[in-house]
Every structure is written in structure tokens, then in C-alpha cells.
Protein: NAD(P)H-dependent oxidoreductase
Organism: Winogradskyella marincola
Amino acid sequence: MSNTIENLKWRYATKKFDSSKTIPDEDFETLKKAMQLTASSYGLQPYKILNIVDKETRTKLRAASWNQSQIEDASHMIVLANFTDFGDELVDDYFENVIDTRDLKKEDIADYANSIKSTIGQLSQEQKAVWTAKQAYIVLGNLLSAAAQLKIDACPMEGFASDQYNEILNLNSKNLNAAVVITLGYRSEEDATQHYKKVRKSEKQLFTNI
């Protein structure tokens, strides 16, 4: 547990990456697995995880990100894109996986599946988009923690024009929206931010026993 806390103290929102350093494939596969295993409501994972590898695309995205250098300089760039709307197919796809993985019959899970459909089916399109974006942010938290364990630097980024991202990445046609961006790699020695003391609320301010 002490290593976990020390790693979380070590991490910070990296402002300048060393563009000469690349995350080893083995470590990136670990980060992918951490994202895949992230908890989500009902286990539905109502989002897509985009690994932006094309350099030309990253150049375009940098322009849509207030010209922040992390977009191009980081080893890897992840865009978490949430579904903006969905129907019963989201639940059906999940339970097809459940049936296959757990060797069940459709009738074994029918009542539970219908219960989920009834619950989330009542949401408006706007409420669905808000809910799915919240699910994507759970992935973000898990990824930041996993990266810290591997001593991989990361920068969660909301400073971008989502409408431009959606156009560049052709997300609108896929019923997706760019919710949040995470750049990953290794900090540059020139990044002064790494030397700042971490500022957080005290436990007394933050926690309440009820």
C-alpha cells in the first residue's frame, strides 16, 4: 500500500514530455488491460477507447487542443469517447458476451437484462450522454493510477474543442463524442511542473464521517 501512495505522490499532470522516449509495448499492453478491466455501471462500458497513433492526425488534434505540445510530444495519446445515445443494443451486446463467457442460456439472464433496459431506457438522450461520459471518466482514473504504478507520466486533458475532435476523428457518424484526452509518456527534464509541491485538501477538509 505504501508503494501505491508513493506512486500517486510521484505522478502529476505532465506539461512537457520528452518526445525521444517511447513507452515499451509491454507496458502499454498493461495500460490497455487496466482500461479494459475498469469498472463500469452494469458492466456495459458505453464508450470507445481511441489510441491515436497517426502523426498527421495528432498534428490536427494539437491545433484543436489550444496548441498544447503534449498532444504531439507524448509517446501515446488516448481519447476516451462516450456514446451520445444508445438503445437496447447496448444491453443486448453485453449479455451476449455474458452468455458466451459464463456459458449461460439466454433465459438465465433475461429478467436482469430487461431490468437494465427498463432502467436506462427511461433516460433522455441528454441524460444518456451525461451518464456515458461519467463512465468514461472512471477509465481515466484507473489509467492514471496504473500509469503511476509503472512510472509512466500522464496528463489528463479537457482543454480541447470536442466538436473539432469529433470532426477530425469522424466520431459524430459513430454516435460518439470525445469526452477526455490522456497523453502518456515520460516527463521532460525541462518540465518545471514536476518540481511543484502537490496541493490537495487536507483529510480534515475532505473527509466527513456520517
